Amino acid sequence: MKQQTAEAESLMVMSSVTVQAPARLHLGFLDLNAEIGRKFGSIGLAINSHHTTIQISSAESFSIEGDCLTDDLQLKISQICQRFYDSFGHQIPSANRRISIRLKTVIPAHSGLGSGTQLALTLGTALAKFHSLSINTPSLAKELGRGKRSGIGIATFDRGGFVIDGGLKPNQTVPPILTHIDFPTDWKIVLVMDPHHQGIHGAAELQAFKELPIFPQANARLISHITLMQLLPSLIEQSADEFGKAITDIQGLIGDHFAQAQGGRYTSKRVEACLLHAQKLGHTGIAQSSWGPTGCIFVENGIQAKQLIQELEQFVDNTFSDDNTPTFIQTSADNRGAVIESTM
Question: Which ranges does the record mark as transmembrane (predicted)?
């Protein structure tokens, strides 16, 4: 009887499910030293400039399509589906696996915006909703191999906003979320993107973590101190200037540690030039997201963002003679997380 019930439930499918998830900025680690038992611990924010959007609908045969689909993305989507059906969906009849997967939008890969995690969670959630399976996001992340170093993308998928996670204990697969705060909607972020450069990823990323020196415990303590006594209070009190100073200080400590692996405090020299120019103009809140190459500058409002972009565009025109120049995008926080729509 239990087997018949499971099979009956697996036949309950939606006609269409669409899931859209925001990109995220990874703004630093709390403790790479792990001397007191937990490693990493991350600071991050969901943003609304880039999204991964996937639609699943009933079809006569399994297919993957979309204008932004590449061979690499097709392979990744196939692998995610295989892992899903080998685990959570192992009881779903093969007839119900005849679905059309349409990749409608995608976060740029290896740009520091969390594309891999959001692809896995967006597709995994869409498959779960389509097959009427109740699976929470941390469970999906664990099964699909996400959250091994940072829980930011998992938390922002569910809730958006500003997030701090508590890092990983040995043999732990998904870090706990310590803080979630709605980010001030008036504050803006100027993204500095280098479409001709990629951040460290894959095997090179794993090798970099192995070869980096031990993170100084004094710096881990300092980052934690800044986070607790400056970064978080600045968000509660909505002080953009104090927030910017805290982010800049944290990023300096993290960036200098990773300089050995990424060739300097920032991955892209052209992004670095723009970030340093913004500092010369008096801006704080200077950061690189994850391994880059995307840089970001936090400002208090849209007027400041527009003016900064104009100044950076002029700087680029006067500095670089070729067409491989950074691009600039004004964005803001996404405080809602993934949006799920379904029809029967």
Answer: none
Domain with CATH 3.30.230.10 in the chain: 2-182+335-343
Q: How far from the centroid of its chain's Cα atoms is residue 126's Cα?
A: 18
Q: For residue 146, give the DSSP letter.
A: -
Judge contact between 296 and 111, C-beta under 8 A.
no
Residue 166, number of CB atoms within 10 A of its CB: 18
Longest dimension (CA), the chain: 74
Helix (H) or strand (E) holding 100: strand 99-105
CA proximity to 72, closest of 121, 119, 104:
119
| Per-residue pLDDT, 87 | 96
Calculate the CA dihedral of residues 191, 197, 203, 205 and round it to 10 degrees.
-40
Tokens of 127: 């498959």
Residues in the chain with pLDDT values less than 70: 1-13
- Domain at 2-182+335-343: CATH code: 3.30.230.10
- Residue linked to tokens 């029809």: 343
Each residue's pLDDT tens digit, 223-240: 999 999 999 999 999 999
According to CATH, where is 3.30.70.890 located in the chain?
A: 188-331
Could you read off the pLDDT of 190-216 as tens digits, one per residue? 999 998 888 777 777 778 778 888 899
pTM of full prediction above 0.70:
yes
CA distance 218 to 33: 9
Fold for domain 188-331?
Alpha-Beta Plaits (3.30.70)
Coil, helix or strand at residue 202: helix
Please spell the DSSP secondary structure of 169-191, one letter per residue.
Answer: -TT--SPPEEEEEPPPSS-EEEE
* Owner of token pair 């399994």: 62
